[in-house]
Design brief:
single chain, 470 residues, alpha+beta, Porin, eight-stranded antiparallel barrel, 23% helix, 32% strand, elongated
């Protein structure tokens, strides 16, 4: 104790003798002494540090596992697949936008060039528009000074196939402003001169009588416009246009499909309903028969449906230090469709057609494939909620085998309904191209749905292709 007190006394005395502030060169002196001091360890340079790390890392050995490369390969393939799908989708979007804009401008120009009030038919059994009839009456009153008229037949316009030698000259019943028309006049005694020079040159002298058995020659005259009223009075021979739309067409098409998979409540694992989506492509061949504005179409379509269900890891068969784990990773179906569609063409002008579509298809799953992963895990199971001592409950689910493998339609078919619209463009006398977006709704199957999870598949289709008229 005395030694400790004396030591404390000496330290206190020394501290009291020190000035309150250090001198100017105190820090420099400390730094010089620190630099000149012999270091206990040799500092490691950056190069030596890197070499040391390399040696340490090289001493750690990791056993090669082929699963690592398989996972890397699968990841790279997945990235490439999604990149390719993005490019295809963007290209289809650009094509759809181009077709929409092109169709819009063509339809707009059509209505601007051909207004409805100019629609007049001549030399036919169709009536004139009211506007043209009024203009025709004014022209007739100014052109003719009718002294004695001709009998008026109230049966309408002159038919093209009427023999002029077996009837009297008839006029339009709608022209009501001609005066002094005797009801029983059989002969024309005189006709005054025509004010139009083109008609004056055609008449040679005065016409006094027209016999029923005589033949009146057709006088060539200069027609100023195609809507002349003379075309409704003087019979003219026109080539009858026999158009028919009852044709047969064959087509080939490609569809980009967006599938929406609805998985109902899972009774095996007690999991609520789950929704998923995936993309696919389909290719098809069609045969159609048109009747005026209606077309009936059928054919064949090939689709490869591939999607990933909800990932559920199930553990089973625990031993001393290991247990087994299994899960359903992927479902793949090859589907052949036989559609039956009805199309109604509501618009058909200048080579462009717009139609509505409704129908249904019978779908057969020809091949089915499943990716099931099983692995051995060291240790004890962590989650006993999905643990089974005997075996995996995944085997309790109904796995579809496909029609080609089983030879039966049981569990390998479903029916869906279609609704959509389409745009069609005529690029040749027998060749058409078209684009048709549509929605397909799952309707019925052998069970609740298809596959081990009883999935229902609804889809959006963007179908593009061409058709050839036979």
């Amino acid at each position: 104790m005395n030694k400790n007190k004396s030591f404390d006394f000496v330290i206190r005395k020394k501290l009291n003798e020190m000035p309150p502030t250090p001198s100017y060169g105190a820090w420099q002196t400390f730094q010089e002494k620190w630099v000149n001091k012999e270091p206990n360890t040799t500092p490691i340079s950056d190069q030596n540090f890197d070499k040391n790390i390399k040696t340490k890392v090289g001493s750690v050995l990791k056993s090669h596992q082929i699963q690592h490369w398989e996972k890397l390969k699968y990841r790279l393939e997945t990235i490439e697949t999604y990149r390719r799908k993005i490019y295809i989708n963007k290209l289809k979007e650009l094509i759809a936008v181009f077709l929409f804009v092109f169709t819009f401008f063509n339809v707009t120009n059509h209505f601007l060039m051909f207004p409805e009030n100019e629609h007049i038919q001549y030399a036919d059994n169709k009536s004139l528009s009211l506007e043209k009839i009024a203009q025709t009456k004014e022209k007739e009153e100014a052109a003719f000074d009718q002294k004695k008229g001709v009998p008026i037949k109230k049966s309408g316009l002159v038919k093209n196939n009427t023999n002029i030698s077996n009837r009297k000259l008839v006029a339009i019943a709608e022209i009501q402003k001609f005066k002094n028309l005797p009801g029983n006049t059989k002969n024309i005694h005189s006709v005054s001169k025509h004010t139009d020079e083109s008609y004056n040159s055609a008449f040679k002298g005065e016409v006094t009588k027209i016999d029923n058995g005589s033949t009146i020659p057709l006088i060539p005259a200069k027609v100023q416009d195609p809507y002349s009223v003379m075309a409704t009075i003087i019979p003219m021979n026109f080539a009858a246009s026999k158009k028919t739309n009852n044709v047969t067409r064959i087509g080939f098409y490609f569809s980009h499909v967006r599938n929406f998979i609805l998985t109902p409540f899972d009774k095996v694992y007690s999991i609520p309903r789950f929704e998923n989506s995936t993309s696919a492509q389909s290719y098809g061949f069609s045969v159609g028969r048109s009747f005026q504005k209606l077309e009936i179409e059928t054919g064949f379509e090939y689709t490869n449906l591939q999607y990933s269900p909800l990932l559920i890891k199930e553990t089973f068969g625990a031993a001393a230090d290991i247990y087994f784990e299994t899960s359903l990773r992927k479902i793949q179906f090859t589907i052949i469709k036989v559609p039956l569609r009805f199309k109604y063409f509501a618009f058909n002008k200048k080579g462009w057609s717009v139609y509505a579509m409704a129908g249904s298809s019978f779908n057969v799953i020809t091949e089915a494939g499943y990716e099931i992963e099983e692995s051995v895990v060291k240790g004890k199971p962590v989650n006993y909620n999905r643990f089974s001592d005997d075996g995996p409950r995944l085997e309790e689910k109904p796995f579809t085998t496909g029609f080609l493998d089983s030879g039966s339609l049981e569990g390998n078919y479903f029916v869906d309904l279609h609704l959509g619209i389409g745009i069609e463009k005529k690029i040749h006398s027998r060749l058409h191209v078209y684009a048709q977006p549509s929605y397909h709704s799952f309707l019925k199957s052998d069970g609740i749905g298809i596959g081990p999870n009883n999935d229902k598949v609804n889809s959006l289709h963007l179908q593009t292709g061409f058709k050839f008229t036979l």
